[in-house]
Structures are given as structure tokens and as C-alpha cells.
Amino acid sequence: MTGHRLPHPSIAIIPIALLITLLVIVITLFGSDSLSGGSQIALLMGAGACVLISMSVYGMPWKTFEHQMTKTIGDVSITLLILLTVGMLSGSWMVSGVVPTLIYYGVQILSPKFFLVSACIICSLVSLLSGSSWTTVATIGVALLGIAHALGISEAWAAGAIISGAYFGDKMSPLSDTTILASSSVRVDIFEHIRYMMLTTVPSISITLIIFLIAGFGWGSGDTALHIEQYTNGLASTFNISLWTLVVPVVTGILIARKVSSLIVLFASSIMAGIAALILQPHLLSQIAGDPALSTAAAQFKGLAITYYGATAIQTGYDALNELVSTGGMAGMLNTIWLIICAMCFGSVMVASGMIESITRVIIKWVHTRLSLVTSTVGTGLFLNLTTGDQFISIVLTADMFRKVYEKDGFEPRLLSRTTEDAVTVTSVLVPWNTCGMTQATVLGVPTLTYLPYCFFNILSPLTTIAVAAIGWKIKRLTRPSAIAEQEN
Predict the structure, then answer these.
(1) CB-based contact 111:297 (threshold 8 Å)
(2) CA separation for the pair 260, 130 (Å, rounded)
(3) What pLDDT was estimated at residue 488?
(4) Residue 17 confidence class, pLDDT cut points 50, 70, 90
């Protein structure tokens, strides 16, 4: 915005209002197919409105928007590669028998009554060790969702437990990119940042586990035994169920523990699963190839290639199980990637135009007390998650916008880093057009708005950070409060 005045807040809100209106129309008309093109059009229309207003009213040059879009989309290029690799992994882990084997034994070990709380804890531990909610959901999360199907547990509840655990572990892990980003953005030591987050995060995850524990007692009655028998019989008759397939997740876990890059881990795991498929499931690869004229080796190679990049439909004899073991490969991630690019376009032009800054300045004007400061930070983080479509952009912008306000009022920078994580990292997955919301909905096959009400940890986190601010628990000032902060006393 150098050399250009900020748009008035009443003008800045127009693209957002248009986007929300269009998204409501799209979701109403297209339902679960809204991510197949309708939402992308809504985002581009919102971006177009922002550019039109900025160029015609404020005289901003197109190059400003072009530069910001190029930078923003370039910044998420690795994310797009990770999504494609996740598509490879989901297909290969399924066809190789990794996920079917985990489901086969998991349904016989996990109790339906304790499944939700167990799933949340398992995903918490995996995500804490890996530092990645995306990797956790794409691997053990997919397997747990399959177990939930077999146990007759609602996929919405199961997805909520999986996501709650994955994002708790991600948020508290020193290996997490969002945790590192939030702490470094306000120059706080990462371990000090994590320790301070425990004051809000531990209560949130504790309440979440209690909810899942209580809710679990409502499952497990009726024909659960029949469900389990159908799933185990269907899996055993279709796949070569073997403990050897678990070598793949074990080696994947070792790579994660050695802090190997997520992209490398996912790609290496996909290759290992492909080798396992060639050794243990050659009949399925030939079935997927669907060309009897090919030699055995050629058919298996073709089947493996399709497993990596395309849709697979394996017949097990049970319709529900057929749907569970079907995969989309890299092609199944293209709608998500398309949506991310459109979301980045909208977010980047809103930033470049100064409209985000204009709206945020209005919010900051209402800051008069410790509670209003934290609440404003939470509100801004949520607002940025909704408008920029990316948690990384939202974390950086929230930290940048409030750093001087916290310094002026004499609050510790770790309060800002904690509040930013509580508001941004965990809520990004609740926004259908945010990169996190789109990715997890695609990987799990459960729409964002379907699992949203059951992501209790993600919902409770921003509320808990506001409650702790209201109490003032372990929140202290480092310097004498400014005139604004003194109004609190």
C-alpha cells in the first residue's frame, strides 16, 4: 500500500460481503459438490471485486496485485506438492494393504465405546511426534476413519476426534511449522511459547477428551458385531492381510522421528507402499489396470501408476466397504489444489489493496483492556482465516498487526504468540475454503461443515484463550501500561 491511501472500512468489507453471499448461494445450490468449481468461482469473483474497487477508486496499479499473487502462490507451492504426494500416499497405502490391515486388526482391538477418545489420543501422539497434522490425518487418520466405519461410528464424530487430536499435537510440537512460525513471528523462544500454550491448550484438550469419552458410551450397541464381521471378511477376502504391510508405517514413523521433511517422508512412504503392493497385492494391481491383453508385469505397472495418480474402485462384496477402500490418487487432490490457488488469489489481493489492514485497524480501535486485546486478536485471526484462506498468512498478519499494540500496553510477547496459535492454527481446519479445511475434508472424505461441530478442541481453543485472558491467569505486564492499557484499571 506504499503511496496509496487505505480504503475506508465500509469499502473494504464489500469484497468479503460479496464472497460470503456467493458462497452461501454456491453451497445451497451445489451442496457437497461446491468444492468442484462453485466455491472457486466465488473466490475469484470476490478477488475481482477487490481489484476493480482498488483500481477504479484508489488508482492502484495492476502490477501491485500481480506481484502479491505471484509471491503468495509461490509461498504455497510446497503445500501444493505435499497435497499431490498425499494423494499418492492415500492411494498406495490403501491398495498395498497398509490401511486395510490396520482396519482389520483395529476393529478387533478398539472398543466402540472408547474409540473416539482413543482416536483423539492416538492422533495427538502421532502429530506431536511428527509435528504435522496433515501427515497424521493422511496416514493414521484415514485408517482410524475406516475403523470407525466398521464399528458403526458416525464419520462426523470420528473425523472430529481425529482432527481434534491431530491439531492438538501439531500445536504443541516443537517440530510443527505453524508453532515455529507463531513463536518466531513475535520473537519468542519456541519452548517458552509451548509451555505458555499449555495454560490454554491443556484445559481445551481435557474437556475435549471428556466429551469424546461420554459420547462414546452411546456407540457400540445393535449390530456392531455384524459390522465388524462384514468388514473383516470383506477385507480378508479382497486383500492379502499381512503384518508385513506394517513395515511401511513403521519406517514412515522412523523418518518422522528423524525429523525428515514432510514432503520427503510422504513421497518415500508412497514408494514403499507401492513396492508392498507389487509384492503382496499383485492381483489388485492387475484388477485396477483392467486390461487383460497386457502381460502380468505390464498390468501390475499400469495398476500401480493408476493407484498413484487416479481413482481406484476395488470390489469387496460390501457396498459400504467398497466406498471406504476406493481412492482418488493425485487426481483426487486437484479440486483442492484449484481451490487453494483461488483462495490465495483472493487473500493476496485483499492484502495488497490494504483492505485487510483497513478492517483490522477498526478492530484495534476497540482495544481498551487486557480482555478486549486478546479478544480482538482472536477475532482478527479468525477473520484472516476466513478471508486469506491460509493459516500461514493469517499467523504472520495477526502477529504483525498486534505486535506493537502488545508492546505499547506492556504485555509479554508470548501472550501474542499463544493467542495467535489459539485463534489461527486450530481454526483454519474449520473453514471450508481454507487450505487446511479443504485438505482434511478431501483426505478424510468428510465435508468440512459435517465434521466442524465435532472438532471440540478446535472450537474450544479460542474460547479458552479468551476465558484465561478474562481471569488474567499468569498474564503479566513487563512495562508500565500505556494510557490505553491504564483504562483497564
Answers:
(1) no
(2) 9
(3) 40
(4) confident
pTM of the predicted structure, to 2 decimals: 0.70
Q: Where are the alpha helices (DSSP H) in 410-473?
A: 413-420, 435-444, 448-451, 456-471
Instruction: Say if residue 475's pLDDT is above 80.
Output: yes
Amino acid, single-letter form, for residue 36? S
- Provide the b/e sequence for 32-48 (b: ≥16 CB within 10 Å): eebbeebbbebbbbbbe
Measure the CA–CA gap between 261 and 266, rounded to whole angstroms: 9
Give 3-24 as a DSSP string.
TSPPPPHHHHHHHHHHHHHHHH
User: What's 430's DSSP letter?
Assistant: G
Nearest Cα neighbor of 157 from 101, 214, 108, 109 is: 214
d(CA 197, CA 474): 11
C-alpha cell at 290: 483392467
Cell of 28: 445451497
Residues in CB range of 280: below 8 A, 6 or more apart: 96, 97, 240, 242, 244, 245
Residue 366 phi, psi dihedral angles, 5° rounding: -85, 0
Owner of C-alpha cell 484388477: 287
Alpha helix segments (H runs only) across 354-422: 355-365, 370-388, 391-409, 413-420
- Is the pLDDT assigned to residue 225 strictly greater than 90? no
447's CB contacts (< 8 A; 6+ apart) are 32, 432, 441
Burial class (CB in 10 A: 0-12, 13-18, 19+), 317: exposed
CA distance 120 to 108: 18
